[in-house]
Each structure stands twice: as structure tokens, then as C-alpha cells.
Target: 2',5'-phosphodiesterase 12
Amino acid sequence: MWQRLRAALGRLRAGGPAPGPVPAGMERAVVRCVPAEPKLSLRLVLPDGSTRHMQRDQAEPLGRALARLAATAAKGRAKAAKKSKKARAEPGEEAAAAGGEAAAVPAVRLFSRDGLAVAEEVPNAAAWQDGAVLQVGEARYRVERNPPAVTELRLPRSLLAGFPVCPKVSAEFAAPRHCVFRWYRQRRPADGEGGGGDAAWVEEAAGTERVFTPCNALVGLRLKLRCTPGDGERRYGQPCEVESSGPVEAGPGACTFDSRHLYTRKVCGHGSVRTVSYNILADTYAQTEFSRTVLYPYCAPYALEIDYRQNLLKKELAGYSADLICLQEVDKSVFVDSLAPALDAFGLEGLFKIKEKQHEGLATFYRRDKFSLLSQHDIAFSEALLSDPLHKELCDKLAEYPTVREKVLQRSSVLQVSVLQSATDPSKKICVANTHLYWHPKGGNIRLIQIAVALSHLKHVACDLHPSIPVIFCGDFNSTPSSGTYSFISSGGIAEDHEDWVSNGEEERCNMPLTHPFKLQSACGEPAYTNYVGGFHGCLDYIFIDKTALEVEQVIPLPSHEEVTTHQALPSVSHPSDHIALICDLKWK
Model:
């Protein structure tokens, strides 16, 4: 069979004419060819109406691929002919129809964009070029090599009027910023049937961006999104559509962050860096019976649902127009499916560091047109303490207190460290650190060890690897301004007789003096509280900055006490977390 097909293909190449002008409506032959993969794929609809999806070795000669395609097309023709004969034949003639000759092998040729036949010895990877023309019998196909394609398009399950709808868009050979978006709303009976298009949907005139904010008039109606993937070369692939699973619902009214957005409507200038630190309350902690009945009994159950809280959170974060965002208690699935796609649409690139043996961790986002990522230096405290020579002296000291040592090593806390470079002034670099320290009220001694490891690691990054770059250190430190941890960070040292060394009683005493070389200050001062729940309120979150290199331009005011306590405490129907975001504008000195 192969020899006959090869001979036929040879004759066709030798004497067959090149195809004429390519019609605008020509069928597509889609080729996916990625250098890192051994095979390429070819997908097209044959003249008999059947779809064929072939996979061939990239190094294979083109002639073999064309021969295989010819054989496949011949089988399709034979099946179609047999079916047609059976349909026309009398009952007694079916056997004769079934015994007819096989359909002839169609001519299959591939022509380059300039109309020349491609030699059969050419490897598949080089033969199937964008714009080439494939001829199968009388049918012709325009080859589209690696066309833009949507691989995933998803809408959030919860849609609120007045809150941005940020779809998850994953694409191959495309970028969301080059895609074309069209938003539609469900048609009401009063709309009538005019306007053409899909009778069930009406296009939203304002819905041409990746992010769409439904107005109150859309409450009760479902949404549909059509995404046409595109790339930087103005190539566009097949559109993909997705419909919302439910209708747009009414929003909660005024939120705690609305007044803060008045200060952050615009991205600050290139000489400034707007920084946010925020513990967003992991869903893995919010969705427990203990949380509903003990921690947050005052919060309406629906307001603890992740889809509802994500609506609030995305609107809140987008409205801050930040350059840097450091988040704690970020569920891995929330980062991948919700936050990263949403903030990407607003120009922010996201990095994630999961806690050891946990489902949540830390996320750092930076504005792409202001910064580029130079390097990452994330660590887990327990692992670094044991294995990194930087911490050998501290580890040796800790060995004298085995009970405390064991507790430190059991903790899953991590430190996320990113070195960024200014996009407009490459001489300006910054070290952004993000952490979430041990939570227990009596764990002051554990937190001192963790922060000592963190500051020693930051010294290595910001002094040894990247000499003299300023540090921004964000996080939920689970430490009030009166704590040893806060004092140690702010003053540069902690005495061996500080009371926090016995925070959990004499049996867990671990006295040791500690120092660090940084000059750090809390950029947002010492608010009355950054965490407000039914049984506790206090300041636990900070943005520490290198005061020798950075200064504070403005601190965005926190919500008023009246706003925080409108629904008794946090979280609530108008606030997505039990913490409050810290926001400040910084600039280089």
C-alpha cells in the first residue's frame, strides 16, 4: 500500500499543477507543533464530513504523513459510498452494493505559501508551515500552524452587581491581552427578537474588555462570554464561549473598602511604589463548623462562602491600584483559579509559595509595567534552620532547648522572597519579603526564632547576593507592637532576658540574644487593630521598610471603627476577611 501511495504522490508532485488563488473561506487544517514534544498533530474535516485528528513524529518525512492521510481519506470515501449505495439499493441488492470496489485513493499534496510542492523528504516539523495549502482530492485547506487557541474559559460561580467578573482564561499560542472579548446578557421577554444574532442573548455594548462589571439592571440575568484568542501578530483562533452557571445577584451595598478606594483610583507614578499587605482568610479555615459556630458566629453563612468572598476580595484588591501586593492565607486553588487570573487582568503578575504540608500559603503580586522579576529566594523556616549554614549558630543555640526546638521544627511557616527590578530605572532593585508567623498567643518564643531565621535569610539576599538593595517586609506577624518580635524587628536586637522567651512558661524558656543589621520601621505605624474578630482585636500585620533607602509618601486610612463594626466584627457581608489590608505609598530616598 505504501509503495503505491508513494508512487502516486511522486507522479502528482512531478506533474501536478500548483493550486490557484486561495479562497477566503477555505477550510482549515490545524497543525500543532511544539519543539519540546516529539509529535505534531494535524486536525481537519475531510470532504466526507468526518473529522480527522492525526499525530505524527516531527522527524518523519512528509511523504509518510501524506500517504497516511490519503489512506484515511480513501477509507472515508469508501464508507460514504457504501452508505449511499445501501440507501439507494432495493432490499435484494444490498449484498451487491456491499461488495463494491473500494474508493480510489485521493490525491494528497502540500504546497508552500509560494505555491511550490513541498518535497516528501522534508521532515514534518519543517513541512507544515503557517499559510501552506493542503490539497485532498478537490478540497483545499489553509494550514494554520500553532494558531491561537483557548484551552480553558471559566466564569466565577458567584456574580454580584457592581463587582468585577474576572474570567479564568488559559490559552495556547495566545495571550489574554491580545484576545477579543464579547460579553452578553440573557435576553428578557420584553427585548423582543430584533437585533439578530443568538435569540437567547443580547450583546452588552460596554462588554468588550476581559473584565466586566455587571450593573444593577442585570440582576436576575445570566451572562455569556465569547473569547476569540489572539497573539501579538494579529492572528486569531476559533472563538470559545462560556455561560454563567447562575444569574447576577444584588451586591451587598456599601463595603468597608469603598472609602479607601477614593485614595487609590490611579496607579501612582514611577518613582513611587504602592504596597499592600493583607491576610485574606483561607477558605480552608473559613469553611469549618468551628469557624461558623465559634470563631465567626456573627457572620452570615453565605458571606463565608469562598465564591462570595472572592467577589469582594477581587473588587477590593483591584481598586487599590497597587504595585506590590503581599497576601497571606491564600488557598492554592484560590490563587490558581481566581486571584492570579483576576489580578493578571489588572496588570499584576503573581507568585505563590505554599506552606509545608498545607493547602494554603503566601502570594506576592507585582505590577508588570513597573517591575520585572530577577530572582526568588523562598524558604521554609524549619528546613532552612536545619540545612542552611547561614543558621548554624542559631540552630546550635536552639539545640540546648530541645522542647522549643521540636516545636519550631513542627511549624509549617514559610518566607517568600522576591527580588524585583524597576522597569524604568534598572539601577533600582528591591527585595520584597512576605511571611505569616506562628499564630498561637503563647508562641512568642517560636515567632522570635522564625523571625531570626527570616532576617538572617534576608541579610544574605539583600546584602550578599544583591548588595545594598532596600527591603520591604510584609506579613501577618501575629505580634502586637508590645511583643518581642515587633521590638526585635524595629530595634535590631532582642535581649536574652526578654519576657517573650518564656511566653509559654518556664518549661519552654529559651534565652538567647539576637541581632540583625537592618534599619526597619513600620510604614503604616501601629494601628489600633488590623485583625477584628468577636473575641479579639489587635494590630498583627505590618509593612516594614528599610528606612535608610525608602520613605512613606502616604498611608491609606483604615476603615473607620463604625464601618468595621457595622456587622459586629469581621468577616462580614461587606468585608471578605477577619483582617484589614494595610496600604501605603513608598518612594526611594
About this structure: The radius of gyration is 32 Å.
